[in-house]
User: Fold this.
Amino acid sequence: MVTVADWAADQGASDLLTLGLGSCVAIMLYDKETKIGGMAHVLLPSRSLARDATNPAKFPETAVPLLVQRMTQMGADPRRLVAKLAGGASMFGALMTPGTIQMGERNIVASRNALRDAAIPIVAEAVGGGQGRSVRFHVSDGSIEIRTVGADVTTL
Assistant:
């Protein structure tokens, strides 16, 4: 179970699960050859927005390097890593001033930028919208099941 501002990495026949993604984004990295996967449930787009910036899993800019480091220690090759993203919903869009950038969108952009900076390609995403999601990452094959409020289960 990966909770808010948390991360996990594993290998083989395990699942990494995070529940209740709203504006948060789940960043999932995978090395197909070694079957090593990692997930971070990022909360904020930048350390500058936090009172306490000591938790690297809270922000894309620090969560991505953390996952890469841990997965490399486990035997993954950073050159083979691919990414999938889920979350970043605009949960309270109706309450926002028109034209303002929602926190979910900011988290999506920051996650994409962190992955680009790490030279990790994004191969699939289920981001944005106005509904919360829960994600199950099957490390054995790299597939992701996404349950979105009011919608059918999708697989990435």
